[in-house]
Amino acid sequence: MIKVAPSILSADYLNLQRDIEKVEKDAELLHIDVMDGSFVPAISYGPNWVPQIRKISNLVLDVHLMVVNPERFVDEFADKGADIIGVHVEATPHIHRALQMIKNKGVKAEVVINPGTPVEAIKPVLYMVDQVLVMTVNPGFGGQKFLDETVKKIKQLDDIKKAEGYDFDIEIDGGVNNETVQAAAKAGATVAVAGSYVFGAENPAERIQAIKDATK
Ligand code: DX5
Ligand code: ZN
What we know:
Elements: E1 3-6, H1 16-23, E2 29-35, H2 49-56, E3 60-66, H3 74-79, E4 84-88, H4 95-104, E5 108-113, E6 131-135, H5 151-164, E7 169-173, H6 180-187, E8 191-194, H7 196-199, H8 204-213
Parallel strand pairs: 1-8, 2-3, 3-4, 4-5, 5-6, 6-7, 7-8
The structure holds D-xylitol-5-phosphate and zinc ion.
């Protein structure tokens, strides 16, 4: 069964504790989208949100850095309590260094690829990552439509994983619901981020279970 990472981007910020409590028992991770207004058009939140959230949640804190030159922020997010830090291959000429920095902090390292980026771009670093995030929308906003053409990249990664004996998780992010998750899970996705589908519902816990039930 797939693990679920609700994205707080779609939560009610003025009632964040209440919303996190709604997913705390059913989710495995909590996805924190950091946007700089440069790598992506929007600006969201920064490192200080992590220790605040840590105080009220035991979920794995999955930090997705959508920022230019993410290595500038790796140490701070690690020191502030991130459990996983994801860096985009498109955001830095030094993806290997960025991943090394994350690992040196004892934090799980994740490499991220946009819909327009081929798996080949991250092949040289797959040996060193704990998780690969395949963006299933163009990053920047919640509530977009899942891009079906990204599923073949999940399969490609799963094939490499098996052939090389790697054990990284494969995460999907964007447009995930109980329907779109099915093909992705079949192709090898092991973690599903979901924002609007989970927090847009009356009962977010039910939506998490619906994602899991769809991938049993
Ligand atoms: C998009 C973010 C996502 C976003 C997903 O740039 O990386 O994590 O919150 O939102 P939904 O699930 O609504 O597509
Ligand atoms: Zn994200």
